[in-house]
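[SOLVED] Need 3D model of a two-part complex

Original post:
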Amino acid sequence: MADALTLPPPRPRLLSRDALVSLAVLVALAAWPLAASALGETWYVNLASRAAILALAGVGLNLALGYGGMVSLGHAAFFGLGGYVVGISADAALAGTPLLTWPIHIEATTHLPTLWAVSLGVAALAALAIGAISLRTSGVYFIMITLAFAQMLYYFALSWPAYGGEDGLPIYVRNAFPGLDTYDPLHFFALCFAALVLALALSALTIASRFGQALQCARASETRLATLGIEPFPIRLTAFVLSGAITGLAGALYAELNGFVSPTMLGWHTSGEIIVFVLLGGVARLIGPVAGAVAFVLLETLLGGLTEHWQLGLGLVLLGVVLFQRGGLIGLIAGPRHG
Amino acid sequence: MAEAVLSVAGLTKSFGALKASDAVSLDLRAGEIHALIGPNGAGKSTLIALIAGQLRQDVGTIHLDGQEITPLSVAARARRGLGRTFQVSTVALDFTALANVRLAVQARLGSSYRFLRPAAFDARLEGPAMAELERFDLARRAHVVAAALSHGERRQLELAMAFALEPRCLLLDEPMAGLGAGGVAPLTALLRTLKRRCPMLLIEHDMDAVFALADRISVLAEGRIVFQGSAEEVRASALVRELYLGADA
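Solution:
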């Protein structure tokens, strides 16, 4: 046969179309706060930080949902836990009380890198526990079980007065990052953006690695993977933990940006929004959740300025994407996904 | 008599009142193709699923290379060397042919928890994978996504993946299904050469292929093995004719 399909191997190009589009999206996201800052519009800089943080949450979910085929409706659990790590620590630091006195003594800290490491760890542990149980089911049961776990945490946070209950916890003093002024919106954006780029780079490596190949095979067919001699369960659980940890870090940044954490961050509505970022941008496309989150924030701002029923507009856009453009916004620009 | 690579003893599985597998015993010896035939609903696919570990038997044991594998999971059995192809092809459709086989090589090497180096630029995977594609006449199609391969090519890809695992024995569930007359003959010829690499338990409806390939044939009806013998003996058996071939003609 002489058709184009038989002509291997495609010459490895330094920059594929996907990579170019990814780069363009990131450059646009970075240019936005720079321009806003130059114009003195701090509010828009913070908006860009919000977009970058939500994108980070989506990048986390995309590992599970996009590349692993695990439709989690419980990622708010990890997002919220990351937020509460920052909130609880800030609360204790302000009061000057230790975080924990038993079994070990832990002082509260305002050192951001430490707080992020703890957020990653707490979210990863939660994902390990939730995933270990949820991944024994599949399909609609998996969706419901992840939702149930997140809702359990939501109601727990709601009814636990020590940490604000339904009022949440304020973070009065922004935590410090060595060498940066976290109160400067542009500096804070730089931190969020760096976290996002790091998560994207790690995702890209993971997806292309041996582990990522096995994960994507499990998405296509667990039976196939098992037949090759690779147990699907630990592969998927590992991806779920990575996914939850990244979303947890996003939660920590989100609480910091808002100076506030509340049970809403743990609610199913939040889980749904993170799914929307992934769907809107393009499932299993590296940069998809970034495009999705940016589009979401823009729609929220532009339509939200016109009407408080802006989510109706979002719903219509989402409907259009799901019905007519399954590859999401990125599929529209970069073409269909390949192997 | 050659040593049995795979031996199944008294395998029984019921679904409610239906005995899908009823005290089935058979073995697979080195270098042979052992065909399993029988009318639809005889329990052939159930038996394959039991041996592969997808279904749990009620009673019975399975040994591979003299070691019991009955309590092991599908993946653990595969790691011991039990290969399998499916009636409905299950290659990962959004992977290229090469990526599919590469994954099989990776599984054989037992190294699926590496996160940083891209699998696509890994010579330890690429070399053996390309060699296997070469053997199955798919090298030209290595960079085509499996979804764009023809049905016959996908069948071959599935075999290439199974052999890339370097299995001790192979279960083939209707490899000829849907191939058409033009596809059956070359695959038959290919399988005949492959039995030197590992013995195969073959389920097949295409009788010409079965008679051309099988060293021994077991006839399954209503979950039981009702006849076992060489191709000639099966062809000559009045019972088999009545049960299966007659009903088919």
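Edit: The interface with chain B takes residues 5-6, 8-10, 205-206, 208-214, 216-217, 220-221, 223-232, 235, 238, 337-339 of chain A (CB under 8 Å).
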